[in-house]
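Long-time lurker. I teach an intro course on protein structure, and each term I like to show students one example going from raw sequence to a predicted 3D structure in C-alpha coordinate notation. This year I'd like something fresh instead of my usual example. Would anyone be willing to generate the C-alpha coordinates for the chain below so I can use it in lecture? Attribution to the forum is fine with me.
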Amino acid sequence: MSWESYLVFIVTTGVVCATPGPAALLAITQGISNGLRHSYWAIAGIALANIMYFALSATGVAALIVASSTLFSVIKWAGVAYLFYLGVSTVTSRSSAMTVTQDPEVRVQGVRAFWQAVVVELSNPKALLYFVALLPQFINPTQAIGRQMLIYGLSCAVLDLSVYSLYAWLGSKTKRFTANAAFVKTSNRTSGGLLMIAGALMAMVKRVAH
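-- Reply from a regular --
Happy to contribute to a lecture. Here you go:
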Protein backbone atom coordinates (compact mmCIF):
# COMPACT_ATOMS: atom_id res chain seq x y z
CA MET A 1 0.00 0.00 0.00
CA SER A 2 1.54 3.27 -1.15
CA TRP A 3 0.89 6.70 0.30
CA GLU A 4 -0.51 7.76 -3.06
CA SER A 5 -3.15 5.01 -3.13
CA TYR A 6 -3.98 5.64 0.53
CA LEU A 7 -4.51 9.36 -0.17
CA VAL A 8 -6.80 8.56 -3.12
CA PHE A 9 -8.76 6.16 -0.87
CA ILE A 10 -9.15 8.82 1.84
CA VAL A 11 -10.28 11.51 -0.60
CA THR A 12 -12.71 9.19 -2.40
CA THR A 13 -14.23 7.81 0.79
CA GLY A 14 -14.39 11.28 2.34
CA VAL A 15 -16.34 12.62 -0.64
CA VAL A 16 -18.77 9.68 -0.47
CA CYS A 17 -19.27 10.20 3.28
CA ALA A 18 -19.87 13.92 2.80
CA THR A 19 -22.42 13.39 0.02
CA PRO A 20 -25.86 14.11 1.53
CA GLY A 21 -28.02 11.04 2.10
CA PRO A 22 -30.12 9.36 4.81
CA ALA A 23 -27.15 9.10 7.21
CA ALA A 24 -26.26 12.78 6.83
CA LEU A 25 -29.92 13.73 7.30
CA LEU A 26 -30.03 11.62 10.45
CA ALA A 27 -26.92 13.31 11.87
CA ILE A 28 -28.33 16.79 11.16
CA THR A 29 -31.70 15.91 12.73
CA GLN A 30 -30.03 14.52 15.82
CA GLY A 31 -27.96 17.68 16.10
CA ILE A 32 -31.08 19.85 15.91
CA SER A 33 -33.10 17.79 18.39
CA ASN A 34 -30.43 16.63 20.84
CA GLY A 35 -27.36 18.83 20.36
CA LEU A 36 -23.90 17.71 19.26
CA ARG A 37 -22.91 15.71 22.35
CA HIS A 38 -26.01 13.50 22.37
CA SER A 39 -25.80 13.03 18.60
CA TYR A 40 -22.76 10.77 19.00
CA TRP A 41 -25.02 7.80 19.71
CA ALA A 42 -26.43 8.04 16.19
CA ILE A 43 -23.03 8.86 14.68
CA ALA A 44 -21.56 5.76 16.31
CA GLY A 45 -24.43 3.70 14.87
CA ILE A 46 -23.68 4.96 11.35
CA ALA A 47 -19.98 4.19 11.79
CA LEU A 48 -20.71 0.68 13.12
CA ALA A 49 -22.94 -0.12 10.14
CA ASN A 50 -20.23 0.97 7.71
CA ILE A 51 -17.62 -1.05 9.61
CA MET A 52 -19.90 -4.08 9.25
CA TYR A 53 -20.19 -3.49 5.49
CA PHE A 54 -16.42 -2.98 5.30
CA ALA A 55 -15.82 -6.26 7.14
CA LEU A 56 -18.22 -8.08 4.81
CA SER A 57 -16.41 -6.65 1.80
CA ALA A 58 -13.00 -7.54 3.25
CA THR A 59 -14.03 -11.16 3.72
CA GLY A 60 -15.68 -11.42 0.31
CA VAL A 61 -19.16 -12.00 1.72
CA ALA A 62 -20.44 -8.71 0.33
CA ALA A 63 -19.41 -9.70 -3.17
CA LEU A 64 -21.47 -12.88 -2.83
CA ILE A 65 -24.48 -10.88 -1.63
CA VAL A 66 -24.20 -8.45 -4.54
CA ALA A 67 -23.85 -11.35 -6.98
CA SER A 68 -26.97 -13.03 -5.59
CA SER A 69 -30.13 -11.54 -7.05
CA THR A 70 -32.28 -12.82 -4.19
CA LEU A 71 -30.08 -11.65 -1.30
CA PHE A 72 -29.43 -8.27 -2.85
CA SER A 73 -33.13 -7.74 -3.55
CA VAL A 74 -34.02 -8.62 0.06
CA ILE A 75 -31.53 -6.06 1.39
CA LYS A 76 -32.61 -3.43 -1.13
CA TRP A 77 -36.36 -3.71 -0.62
CA ALA A 78 -36.04 -3.95 3.15
CA GLY A 79 -34.07 -0.70 2.99
CA VAL A 80 -36.65 0.93 0.72
CA ALA A 81 -39.47 -0.07 3.06
CA TYR A 82 -37.62 1.20 6.14
CA LEU A 83 -36.81 4.56 4.57
CA PHE A 84 -40.45 5.03 3.56
CA TYR A 85 -41.52 4.09 7.09
CA LEU A 86 -39.12 6.66 8.56
CA GLY A 87 -40.27 9.22 5.99
CA VAL A 88 -43.94 8.81 6.92
CA SER A 89 -43.08 8.86 10.65
CA THR A 90 -41.10 12.06 10.21
CA VAL A 91 -43.76 13.83 8.13
CA THR A 92 -46.36 13.02 10.77
CA SER A 93 -43.91 13.98 13.57
CA ARG A 94 -44.07 10.53 15.16
CA SER A 95 -41.16 9.41 17.31
CA SER A 96 -38.08 8.48 15.29
CA ALA A 97 -34.42 9.44 15.16
CA MET A 98 -35.25 11.53 12.09
CA THR A 99 -37.93 13.65 13.77
CA VAL A 100 -37.05 17.22 14.74
CA THR A 101 -38.50 17.90 18.18
CA GLN A 102 -37.78 19.17 21.66
CA ASP A 103 -40.56 17.08 23.19
CA PRO A 104 -38.86 14.48 25.46
CA GLU A 105 -41.70 12.02 24.79
CA VAL A 106 -41.09 12.16 21.03
CA ARG A 107 -37.37 12.81 20.90
CA VAL A 108 -35.19 9.76 20.15
CA GLN A 109 -31.69 9.69 21.59
CA GLY A 110 -29.23 7.36 23.32
CA VAL A 111 -29.39 3.64 22.56
CA ARG A 112 -32.60 3.98 20.49
CA ALA A 113 -30.92 6.54 18.23
CA PHE A 114 -27.86 4.28 17.97
CA TRP A 115 -29.81 1.27 16.74
CA GLN A 116 -32.01 3.30 14.40
CA ALA A 117 -28.84 4.76 12.87
CA VAL A 118 -27.40 1.26 12.41
CA VAL A 119 -30.57 0.14 10.60
CA VAL A 120 -30.72 3.29 8.44
CA GLU A 121 -27.16 2.79 7.20
CA LEU A 122 -27.44 -0.99 6.81
CA SER A 123 -30.62 -0.51 4.79
CA ASN A 124 -28.67 1.48 2.20
CA PRO A 125 -27.34 -0.96 -0.44
CA LYS A 126 -25.28 1.83 -1.97
CA ALA A 127 -22.87 1.50 0.96
CA LEU A 128 -22.59 -2.21 0.23
CA LEU A 129 -21.97 -1.58 -3.46
CA TYR A 130 -19.42 1.12 -2.65
CA PHE A 131 -17.20 -1.12 -0.57
CA VAL A 132 -17.49 -4.02 -3.01
CA ALA A 133 -16.49 -1.80 -5.94
CA LEU A 134 -13.88 0.34 -4.18
CA LEU A 135 -11.97 -1.70 -1.62
CA PRO A 136 -10.35 -4.29 -3.94
CA GLN A 137 -8.88 -1.49 -6.06
CA PHE A 138 -6.64 -0.36 -3.20
CA ILE A 139 -5.43 -3.72 -1.91
CA ASN A 140 -1.85 -4.68 -2.82
CA PRO A 141 -1.78 -8.51 -2.94
CA THR A 142 2.03 -8.55 -2.54
CA GLN A 143 1.80 -6.96 0.92
CA ALA A 144 0.20 -8.02 4.20
CA ILE A 145 -3.56 -8.08 3.47
CA GLY A 146 -4.62 -7.98 7.11
CA ARG A 147 -2.59 -4.86 7.87
CA GLN A 148 -3.99 -3.07 4.82
CA MET A 149 -7.56 -3.98 5.79
CA LEU A 150 -7.00 -2.73 9.34
CA ILE A 151 -5.63 0.61 8.12
CA TYR A 152 -8.42 1.14 5.60
CA GLY A 153 -11.09 0.03 8.07
CA LEU A 154 -9.88 2.37 10.84
CA SER A 155 -9.61 5.19 8.31
CA CYS A 156 -13.24 4.66 7.24
CA ALA A 157 -14.36 4.77 10.87
CA VAL A 158 -12.46 8.03 11.50
CA LEU A 159 -13.91 9.60 8.35
CA ASP A 160 -17.44 8.57 9.33
CA LEU A 161 -17.07 10.02 12.82
CA SER A 162 -15.54 13.25 11.49
CA VAL A 163 -17.97 13.93 8.64
CA TYR A 164 -21.15 13.06 10.54
CA SER A 165 -19.94 15.01 13.58
CA LEU A 166 -19.71 18.02 11.28
CA TYR A 167 -23.27 17.43 10.07
CA ALA A 168 -24.50 17.08 13.68
CA TRP A 169 -22.65 20.26 14.66
CA LEU A 170 -24.29 22.15 11.80
CA GLY A 171 -27.65 20.82 12.97
CA SER A 172 -26.98 21.86 16.55
CA LYS A 173 -26.44 25.44 15.43
CA THR A 174 -30.09 25.63 14.38
CA LYS A 175 -31.34 24.12 17.64
CA ARG A 176 -32.72 27.45 18.83
CA PHE A 177 -35.25 27.38 15.98
CA THR A 178 -36.90 24.20 17.28
CA ALA A 179 -38.97 26.31 19.64
CA ASN A 180 -40.75 27.59 16.51
CA ALA A 181 -43.61 25.20 15.69
CA ALA A 182 -43.68 26.25 12.02
CA PHE A 183 -39.95 25.53 11.66
CA VAL A 184 -40.30 22.10 13.24
CA LYS A 185 -43.29 21.20 11.05
CA THR A 186 -41.55 22.36 7.87
CA SER A 187 -38.32 20.57 8.82
CA ASN A 188 -40.11 17.30 9.46
CA ARG A 189 -42.09 17.49 6.23
CA THR A 190 -38.91 18.27 4.28
CA SER A 191 -36.91 15.51 6.00
CA GLY A 192 -39.71 12.99 5.54
CA GLY A 193 -40.03 13.87 1.88
CA LEU A 194 -36.28 13.52 1.35
CA LEU A 195 -36.30 10.12 3.04
CA MET A 196 -39.05 8.89 0.74
CA ILE A 197 -37.17 10.25 -2.28
CA ALA A 198 -34.07 8.40 -1.04
CA GLY A 199 -36.19 5.26 -0.77
CA ALA A 200 -37.45 5.72 -4.33
CA LEU A 201 -33.91 6.21 -5.61
CA MET A 202 -32.77 3.17 -3.67
CA ALA A 203 -35.43 1.11 -5.41
CA MET A 204 -33.66 1.85 -8.70
CA VAL A 205 -30.24 0.64 -7.46
CA LYS A 206 -29.05 -2.38 -9.43
CA ARG A 207 -26.43 -4.98 -8.72
CA VAL A 208 -22.84 -4.49 -9.85
CA ALA A 209 -22.64 -8.13 -10.92
CA HIS A 210 -25.27 -10.00 -12.93
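Some talking points for your students: The chain has one domain: 3-203. Residues 22-59 form the longest helix (38 residues).
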